[in-house]
């Protein structure tokens, strides 16, 4: 387990990161691993708040069956992974059991990419391989609602992406919050407890470029070239990070 502490105390918010994948070793020295990416993202957004939280973030490697006591954190964040949520892997089953217990305990849940897909697939929805194939680089999605926690406001957001699977059926009571032609279910909420996004607010453009270059042959020339060209577009990771913190700060009904 790794622990990180914010330097600006105020309201207390404890987040447990459920790590479901790792940055390739060849990129880790330059870009860090997924938990560190999320710590940088959320800590940066927290410092910009009018009333910053006393933010505690710990990470647990779900692939090693490493899970905290459900009650230990106010919220959990499920990271991306190279695996598909429908693979028959023991650690995915264990993760689903933990998430089920956390939701029953009224803990909030953030799902990013794999996490977004898992929170759909095992809770009444469905995730499958997308007919459109890989989505890489900057992908833009329209916002379909305007909730109080979505501050600062935006009509659309651009986030870095790297996925072939998509959520094709939403869980019961889920509400789509972001959509694009290529990824209709690009984000959803379930009440005031679950918030998910297909895109990666934690990624940097440098890391996205490195991933695409490594997978150039797999992606194919057209997808690779479009993905690399898209890196010139604006992204909105800080806006999304603010939304995540606002969502987690909102009192549950």
Care to give the gist of this entry?
This protein is an alpha/beta fold and 253 residues long. The protein is 32% helix and 28% strand. The chain has one domain (2-130, 165-203, 236-249): Rossmann fold (3-Layer(aba) Sandwich).
Keywords, separated by commas or semicolons:
253 residues, 10-stranded mixed β-sheet, alpha/beta, Rossmann fold, two-stranded antiparallel ribbon, 28% strand
Outline the structure in words.
The protein has 253 residues and is an alpha/beta fold. The protein has one domain (2-130, 165-203, 236-249): Rossmann fold. It has helices at 25-31, 34-47, 90-104, 114-121, 205-214, 216-219, 221-230, 237-249, and strands at residues 2-5, 11-19, 53-61, 75-78, 108-112, 126-129, 135-143, 156-163, 165-169, 174-179, 187-190, 194-197. The strands form two sheets. A ten-stranded mixed beta sheet has the order 1-3-2-4-5-12-11-10-7-8, sandwiched between helices. The chain has a two-stranded antiparallel ribbon with strand order 6-9. A hairpin with a 3-residue loop joins strand 11 and strand 12 (194-197). Helix 2 (34-47) crosses helix 8 (237-249).
In the CATH hierarchy, the third-tier topology is known as Rossmann fold
Largest sheet entry: 10 strands, mixed
- The percent range for helix content is 25-40%
Runs in which pLDDT lies below 50 for 5 or more consecutive residues are: none
**Overall domain count:** 1
Per-chain topology:
Blueprint: E1 2-5, E2 11-19, H1 25-31, H2 34-47, E3 53-61, E4 75-78, H3 90-104, E5 108-112, H4 114-121, E6 126-129, E7 135-143, E8 156-163, E9 165-169, E10 174-179, E11 187-190, E12 194-197, H5 205-214, H6 216-219, H7 221-230, H8 237-249
Helix pairs in contact: 2-8
């Amino acid at each position: 387990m790794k622990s990180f502490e914010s330097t600006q105390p105020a309201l207390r918010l404890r987040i447990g990161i459920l790590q479901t994948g790792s940055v390739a070793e060849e990129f880790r020295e330059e870009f860090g691993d997924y938990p560190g990416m999320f710590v940088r993202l959320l800590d940066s957004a927290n410092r910009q708040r009018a009333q910053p939280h006393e933010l505690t973030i710990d990470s647990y490697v779900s692939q090693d069956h490493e899970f905290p006591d459900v009650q230990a954190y106010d919220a959990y964040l499920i990271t991306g992974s190279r695996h598909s949520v429908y693979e028959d892997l023991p650690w995915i089953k264990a993760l689903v059991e933990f998430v089920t217990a956390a939701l029953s305990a009224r803990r909030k849940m953030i799902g990013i990419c794999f996490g977004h897909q898992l929170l759909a697939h095992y809770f009444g929805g469905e995730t499958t391989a997308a007919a459109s194939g890989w989505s890489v680089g900057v992908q833009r999605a329209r916002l379909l609602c305007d909730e109080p926690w979505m501050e600062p406001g935006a009509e659309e957001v651009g986030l870095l992406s790297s996925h072939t699977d998509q959520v094709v059926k939403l869980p019961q009571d889920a509400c789509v919050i972001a959509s694009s032609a290529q990824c209709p279910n690009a984000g959803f909420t379930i009440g005031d407890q679950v918030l998910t996004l297909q895109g990666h607010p934690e990624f940097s453009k440098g890391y996205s470029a490195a991933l695409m270059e490594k997978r150039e042959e797999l992606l194919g020339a057209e997808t690779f070239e479009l993905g690399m060209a898209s890196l010139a577009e604006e992204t909105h990771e800080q806006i999304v990070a603010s939304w995540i913190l606002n969502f987690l700060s909102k009192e549950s009904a």
